[in-house]
Design a protein that fits this description.
Strand content: under 5%
Shape: elongated
Structural class: mainly alpha
Strand order of the largest sheet: 2-1-3
CATH topology of one domain: MetI-like fold
Distance between the termini: 24 Å
CATH class of one domain: Mainly Alpha
Order of helices and strands: HHHEHHHHHHEHHHHEHHHHHHHHHHH
Helix content: 55-70%
Number of helices: 24
CATH architecture of one domain: Orthogonal Bundle
């Protein structure tokens, strides 16, 4: 039995034995982690928040009278008069319309009751009296409720006494805004590292990751809920619609689409000159355009070196936040396109190499025709003729790159299939009576895909470059979605060099890392490179 010192190194050890390969792997792990956990690193939604939803309470309180008036008017009109004036094409019955008006009023009553502090018994009694009021006194009760449930903070601001106290609630806006796919991928990435560190069996590792993905993806919405709010929470805080008692925001409390118009083209704020702010601005508070109305206490001050570490773009959007979320777009498109073109190349290459004859002729001529045109030009032409509404831009770009770039993989796999099918062990398998399908799946395909695996590593880098170029020209993902190529195109002036240098370096790091790992993978799979 061979001891551990003399045992053959594992494939991963041979693959990552060089310092450059290990460094490239670390760079990609860092970028993948950044992309998967982007909402936890940057965003305008807090992890946890304890606050009073004053805006929701006021919307229910101020609209209760109008809703009640419509309810009372419909009830007083009667069914016969309502049927006489309603349009003929309306299929709603009078009883249904009356029930809808009643439900609209009672929904507001339920919202108001849920917001009341426990000690506000008089306000709760006013709500109960409204629910039980006769039609003749319903409007009077609605007016009394609107007056009695005026929040204490609003009454005090108007110089009045009284007002009701509202209860603060605890929520997790960031977790509620995550989709099941986002949560599953983040949890799956964590499970991958747990499996690598704890488990030894490959099957056990795959099982752990698969169970994590399925469980978290399926149970996320039922357990966490679904936050359909599209407005920025920070904007609601700035307006006073949400009164926050305490909250925990991400390390970078700015969203990728959060605009600060008065901070447009601001250099990185760790530079002393970029932190200058006039006394009037500091006293009055920041008043940006777009989604956010003022600087909140949850984000760095105007003159803080931590406010915009990488600077801002033409709309005052934080470049670091957009760089973090742009990693999701570039890596998704690059890897999805590479997977697609590799699968197409393997299938067509194996089919042409095994069938030969007409199949080989058709695939070979198709490869030659496609390769006569630059792939980038083909993708541009396809994007010009394809309706952007037919598919999400991310999926569409990845699909087109994959459908255009498969030719190189197909040529490699076809040549390898032709070589393998003439080897002695294939002839021996046929002589032993092994079927052609078994020979294909057990002998030809596993050996023919090795060049495709190597080509995949290079294809990801090429796809990232293609997506960045498309976004740079405005044919890729559309605003406000962040993409590294779109970030580079925001300014081409040397005066705003931070805008295109930083995402350019990100693109370079990813493409170079994939190319280095592709070279190392080729050396690890080729015994002639063994030293």
């Amino acid at each position: 039995m061979r001891d551990g010192a003399d045992s053959e190194p594992s494939f991963v050890s041979r693959w990552l034995r060089s310092k450059s390969a290990r460094a490239a792997a670390c760079v990609l792990v860092l970028w993948f982690s950044t992309a998967l956990f982007a909402p936890f690193l940057a965003g305008d939604r807090p992890y946890w928040m304890r606050a009073v939803d004053l805006g929701r309470h006021e919307a229910a309180r101020t609209s209760l009278e109008a809703v009640t008036r419509a309810w009372v008017a419909l009830e007083a009109e009667g069914e016969s008069a309502w049927n006489a004036r309603r349009p003929a094409h309306v299929g709603q019955r009078y009883a249904e319309a009356l029930a809808l008006e009643e439900r609209a009023a009672f929904v507001r009553v339920a919202t108001l009751r849920a917001a009341l502090a426990p000690e506000e018994t008089a306000a709760a009694r006013a709500l109960d009296e409204f629910r039980a009021a006769a039609p003749a006194t319903r409007m009077e009760r609605a007016t009394a409720v609107a007056r009695a449930l005026r929040p204490h903070s609003i009454a005090a601001a108007a110089g009045d006494t009284g007002g009701v106290r509202l209860v603060s609630t605890t929520s997790t806006p960031l977790l509620s805004a995550l989709s099941g796919v986002e949560a599953a991928l983040a949890a799956g990435w964590i499970s991958v590292w747990i499996a690598l560190l704890v488990l030894r069996s490959l099957r056990a590792r795959i099982a752990l990751v698969a169970v994590t993905l399925i469980t978290v993806g399926g149970a996320w919405r039922p357990l966490v809920g679904d936050d359909t709010q599209t407005e920025s929470i920070k904007a609601a805080i700035a307006r006073g619609d949400i009164v926050v008692e305490s909250a925990v925001f991400p390390p970078l409390p700015m969203g990728p689409s959060e605009t600060h118009m008065r901070e447009a083209y601001r250099p990185p704020t760790w530079l002393a000159g970029a932190r200058a702010a006039s006394p009037s601005e500091r006293d009055a508070g920041f008043k940006p355009g777009g989604a956010v109305q003022s600087v909140t206490r949850f984000e760095p001050a105007l003159d803080s070196p931590w406010r915009h570490i990488l600077g801002t773009d033409s709309l005052g959007r934080d470049l670091l936040a957009r760089l973090i979320f742009g990693a999701r777009v570039s890596l998704f498109v690059g890897n999805a396109a590479a997977v697609l073109l590799t699968l197409i190349g393997i299938l067509l290459g194996v089919w042409a190499g095994r069938r030969r004859g007409l199949a080989d002729f058709v695939v070979s001529r198709t490869i030659e025709v496609v390769m006569c045109f630059p792939g980038f030009v083909l993708v541009l032409c396809a994007l010009f003729f394809v309706d952007p509404q037919s598919a999400p831009p991310l999926v569409l770009v990845a699909l087109l790159i994959g459908l255009v770039g498969w030719t190189g993989v197909a040529r490699l796999v076809r040549a390898e299939t032709l070589r393998i099918r003439e080897l002695d062990y294939i002839a021996a398998a046929r002589a032993a009576g092994v079927g052609e399908s078994a020979i294909l799946w057990r002998h030809i395909l596993p050996n023919a895909v090795q060049p495709a695996i190597i080509a995949f590593a290079f294809a990801v880098g090429a796809a990232v470059l293609t997506e960045s170029a498309l976004s740079f020209l405005g044919f890729g993902v559309q605003i406000p979605t962040a993409s590294w190529g779109a970030l580079v195109s925001d300014s081409k002036s040397a005066d705003h060099a931070w805008i295109w240098v930083v995402p350019g370096l990100a693109i370079f790091s990813v493409v170079a890392s994939y190319n280095i790992l592709g070279e190392a993978l080729r050396d690890a799979l080729d015994p002639r490179h063994e030293r």
